[in-house]
Every structure is written in structure tokens, then in C-alpha cells.
Specification:
This protein is mainly β. It is built from no helices and 26 strands. This is Low-density lipoprotein receptor-related protein (inferred by orthology to a C. elegans protein).
Amino acid sequence: GGAADVKVARANLDGTNALVIASNDLTELDHISLDITNQRVYFTEAKAGRISSVTYDGQDRHYILNDPGKQPNGIAFFSDRLFYADSAFDSIDVATIVGDGQPPQFTHFKKEIENLVNIKVLQPRPSSISHPCRTDNGNCKHICVPQQFSQHTCMCATGYTKDGMTSCKLFDESFVMVATKNKIVGYPLDETHQKGIAMDPIGGLSITSIDFEFESRTIFVSEASGINKGITAYAIGESAPRPIVRDTFGSMTIRSIAVDWINFNLYFINQDSERTNIEVCKLDGQYRYQICEFHRTNDNQQQRFY
């Protein structure tokens, strides 16, 4: 659902070789489960009251359940049995799948379970399976992803690029940094760059301004409200943000920031309905100083320098 067409698809664990296996006669998809022995996919459409089954390559699609009075809001396959959570009747139902293509007979497994959302079957897994990713993470710096025939590939986190076959480095090319009220995203100028994301997105509640200091790879973000009201620094490649300016008084909010990357100073405009201040501090927030102050009056604007 959402912005994409409704479909069931598969892909390798690194996102390559995507293949759509079901796209027609679909309403709103909810949950999915796999029968890895017989290589079948089971998926639910709760609003339509349907559970469907199809092979891994999109063949032999048929209904397991087709009843508008049901609401299959979760699904799990175990051995030869299919479980589903029915939020219309507050029950978990189960049926044996015999593989003849005919709809099975479901019976109640558990009743009177309110607010059903999903269901999973927990089962032991062999611990003796050997795979390169289980040995020193496959020598991968970030993520080791299994492939067929006991092969693997290394992947890098958002904001990083591959450096050789196993290592990763920060994205070090030019990119466009875009801020909305609640998110900051970086897009490479080279549109052919894989995945098209140059930095890990940053979330916020009321972002007003951003700037960047390239040498330290640090993004400075001002917000007008919330727990990060003021200015916060985010070093690309590091997880913990650093508060830079927090003590904005009363209803004053920081509306604009500018990094002096030559002298490592941070300038910002701090204002409310009556005052507008231009201030400066070091990039770590030390030695904050108010350069000038503007007061709004009925007739004109008074200016004061310090």
C-alpha cells in the first residue's frame, strides 16, 4: 500500500534481483509467512477477508481463505499447519495444508483474544549451520548479507560507501542536504549513486535551520520546540547528538544558523515577537556572546550593539 503499487515481491537479502510474484487482484496487504519446505508464500488481505498462497516464482496462486466476514490480521506457517489471527472474532484459527489447492477447513485454536495484531510461531533452529557471515561477520566492516551457495556480500550503513570488498568509509563526495520541519536527508549530486542517500536521516519536531562544518563532518540543527529546542550537533558516522545551545529564554527560538568554518564559530538568530538577537559562540557552544539586539516597537525598530 502507501505510495507504491500493491504487490507481493521477493529479492535477495541485499535488495538485488527483485521479482514481483503477485500484483493483480490485490486490495491492501497486511502480513506474510513462508513455507520454506515447499517454497510457498502466504499473505493476508484483512479488509477483504482473504489469505492467498503462491510459489516463490509467482506460480499456482490460489485462496486459502476467502470470506469477507473474516479479518486475517496475522499469519504464521509451521510444519503443515497455517495459523491466522482473526480480529473480527477475537480468535486464532488453524488448518492443515494438504497441498491439493483446495481451501482447508479452519478450526479455533484460541478464542477470546482481544485487539489481535499479529502472530508468530517460535521454533528451534539448528545451531550448527555454517556460513561465512557467522565467522567474524564475514570480515565485513558493517553488515554481512548471505547469498546463495554459502556466498556472502558486505554492505555499508546509510551515509557510507564501500571501500574495497569488506570495508566502509563515510560518503565523502558533495551532496545536497534537505531539511523539512521534521526530517533532514542528504542526496548525492551524482544521481547514479547506489540507493541515493548520502547520510543517515535526522529526525526532529520543529526544525528551523541547518548548516554544516565539513572538516569535522558535523551538521548543526536548530529546532524551535521539543527536547532538542536550541541547536544540536550531529557528527556524521556517530550516533550520539551533542547539545550546543539550549538556554533560549522565554518564548525565544533560534530561527537561523550559519557556520563560520574558517574560525570555527557558530552564528545564530534568536527571536520572539518583541526581540531579535544575533549571537555567536564556538562550535562546541562555549563563549556565547550576543552581538546585537533589535527591539520591535509600534513606530520602528530599535537597534542595540554590544
